[in-house]
Specification:
mainly alpha
């Protein structure tokens, strides 16, 4: 079904309506919120991580599947969560938990033209890349993974709360060959940045995560947490790698402020490109 792209003002939604529909979303379950916060604790024990995985059947299955995948090359079949976590390492399992929490926090919906698989491919790849950039800067890379994973969460807000309107956004992008952010602003009058920021406040994410969401396209505000610049650069790198396999992929310009602030060398950049692709390949068929 093709939706009309004219009379744009009539199709636009107001920020107040975005906020109201976000508030209609259930709050992030306390257990999920606690898990997201505690996963950034470097002192979390192996037993504690195993307990969290065991509480979620789907997550447990993905963990075992990843441990038994050819990417990790297990010599014998891994059959217990403890074995899987020991083999994969706490970092990989924490990342699986993060992905599972976010993916399960939105109701399913039908939005014509929206590629859920492509969305998650981009989000997971950005998380991986942000973690790698953060490690190069000797910053807390677990935290950067979460920020990268959540940077586009506003798109899920708009898709699930305004599916008909968002289908027009996707048509506009295809017709005008423009960036998705511009299409959202032209058709809706609101975009995934503001929607994601409002959701982050509603779900009581940390100030730094809120900064990463609202600053991932425009990170130049010096008051933003430094993770905003990291996610901004990681987002552009992943678009350049086309890991989402999106036929309308456009690589956004990188802010000079963000680029200067992370100051990657050419060799470091090439290493991040290669490692992002390698690690993404290991997760792609398992969790997406």
């Amino acid at each position: 079904m093709n939706l009309p792209l004219n009379d744009a003002d009539e199709k636009k939604i107001h920020l107040e309506e975005v906020i109201r529909r976000i508030k209609d979303l259930p709050t992030l379950p306390a257990v999920a919120q606690e898990m997201l916060n505690n996963l950034d604790d470097d002192d979390a024990s192996l037993d504690a991580i195993c307990e969290k995985v065991a509480l979620d059947q789907a997550l447990a299955a993905k963990t075992l599947r990843l441990a038994n995948s050819s990417f990790y090359g297990a010599n014998s079949k891994v059959v217990t969560i403890q074995q899987a976590v020991s083999m994969l390492g706490m970092k990989s399992v924490k990342n699986l938990i993060r992905i599972s929490i976010v993916a399960n926090s939105f109701p399913s919906t039908q939005c014509e033209g929206f590629d859920y698989t492509g969305f998650w491919r981009h989000s997971v790849a950005t998380a991986i890349c942000a973690e790698l950039v953060s490690r190069k800067l000797q910053l807390k890379h677990d935290f950067a993974f979460t920020a990268g994973l959540l940077h586009d969460i506003g798109r899920l807000v708009l898709v699930t709360r305004f599916p008909t309107e968002y289908a027009r956004v996707l048509q506009y992008r295809a017709a005008h060959q423009c960036e998705l952010l511009k299409a959202e602003q032209e058709v809706l009058g609101a975009d995934h940045v503001i929607a994601g920021f409002v959701l982050a406040m509603h779900w009581q994410f940390s100030d730094a995560i809120q900064d990463a969401i609202r600053g991932h396209h425009e990170p130049d505000d010096p008051s933003l947490n430094s993770v905003a610049a990291i996610v901004h650069v990681a987002n552009a790198i992943v678009h350049a790698l086309d890991l989402a396999q999106d036929e309308y992929e456009l690589v956004p310009l990188i802010s000079q402020f963000a680029w200067d602030s992370i100051a990657l060398t050419e060799n470091e950049l090439h290493e991040i490109f290669r490692e992002t692709e390698l690690r993404f390949e290991g997760l792609d068929q398992i969790v997406i």
